[in-house]
Predict the structure.
Amino acid sequence: MALSDAVLSNEDELLKQKKLIKALKTMMLSLGIALGLLFLTIVLTCLPVYLYKLIANLTLQDLDLSSIWFILSLSLGSILPFLIKRKKPTEDYTEASILFHKLILNNYNLSKMLFSFDRRFKKEKNIQDKNTFLIVSGLARAGTTSLTDQLFKAGAFSSLDYSNMPLLLAPNLWRKMYNPKKVTLKERKHGDKMLFGFNTIEALEEYFFKVFLNDSFISENHLEKHDITEEVYNNYIKYQSLIRQDATSTYLSKNNNIILRYESLRSYNKAFKIIFLFRKPEEHAYSLLNQHLRFSEFQNESEFIQTYLNWLGHHEFGKNQKVFKFGEKAPEIPYDKSTLDYWLAIWLNYYSYLIHILDENYLLIEYEDYLNKPKEVLEYIEEEMKMTFDYSNVTPFTNTKQIDTSACDPNLLEATHAIYLKLKERKLKF
C-alpha cells in the first residue's frame, strides 16, 4: 500500500523516486520477515513429528501416517506457533483493525484519492458548500471537548465522529460499508468521566490538514505556525460539505491546532465563527501535567496509542508532545515535563500569542463561565450562529479544585497571571 501511495504522489520526480525506493525496500523487508515467520511456523509444526521419528527410531518411509502417535505429534506441532506469547497492541483494537488503520492513515496520497472519490459520490445529494461554520479551540484541557459535545447536542450541527475512522477523508463511502447503530459508551482514557462511543464526535479534522499540507508544519519538537493556500482552503470547505448530512446543517469541529493557521484561514473567510477557551493557568497546567503522565504510561504499554495520536495530530501531551512555535524562534522552556512549571510555560506560550492576535472576530470564553453558566454561554453562541438550540442537556457545574503552586517559579506564575488578566478583560461577559 505504501508503494502504491508513492506511485500516486504528484511531487517532484526526484523526491517521488526516493519515496518509491524507500517503499520498495520496506516492502521487500516485510516480505522477508513474512517468509521467515512462515518457515519458522513450518519448523515448529514439524518438530514434534521429527522428535517422534527419533524416539521411535523410524525412517520417513516407516512412518505410519494413520498412527495415533503421528496424529498427536502433528496436532501438537500445529498449535506450537500459536503458543508464542505476543503483547496485545491495545485493548480497544484488534490486530486486523490496526492493520486497516495503518493501510489508510499512513498513506496520504491514497487518502487524497479517497477524498476525490467521496466528492463524486456525494454529488448526487447536492449539498452546497457553506462558508459559515463553527470551530471550538484552545489549549488542550481547556474544556473544548465538553463544549463541542454540548453544542452538537443542542444544535443542527454535523461533525466527524469515531465511526468515521479510519476513512476520515471519505466519510460517505465509508458510511456505506460501515455504519454502526449500536452505541456502547465507555470512559475515555483521559480519566475525566467523559464518555465516548462510535457516534461520539471528536477532534478528527486535523488529519485533513496533515494530508493536504503533507505534515509540513510538524517538526521533531514543534508544531509550527503556517499559512494555507487558497486551494487547501477550498478543499477544506468541500470537505465540510462531505461531512454535513443535509443542506441546513452547520459544520462543527473541535481543533486545538487551528491557531497555527487561524490568521491564514481568516484571510479567506470572514464569516466563520471560532471559540477559544481558556482557564486559570495553574488549574490548566495541573490538568495538562496529569494527562501527560497518564498518556506517557499508556504509550509505554501500547505503542499503537502513540501512533494513533500522531495520525490525528494530537501532540498536546504524552511521549510525542510538541510545543507550538508561533514565530521564527522556537520557545525555550527550561523546565522538566514532569513539573508544573513546564506546563505553565506551555500555557504562557499559547495564550501570549492568542491575546495578541489582532482580530476581534474570535469569541473568547473562560472555562469557569462555561461551567457555571452553560446556558448563557450557549445562548450567546446561538445568537452568533443564528441557530435554534435545545437546552434540555444543559446543566451547570462547579469546579472547587485548588492547586498548590508553592514549588513553582514565581516569575513564571507572575507572567501567566498577567496574561490571564488580559484574557479576562478580552473575554465575553455573561
About this structure: The beta strands are 133-138, 157-158, 186-187, 195-196, 222-224, 250-254, 273-278, 323-325, 363-366.
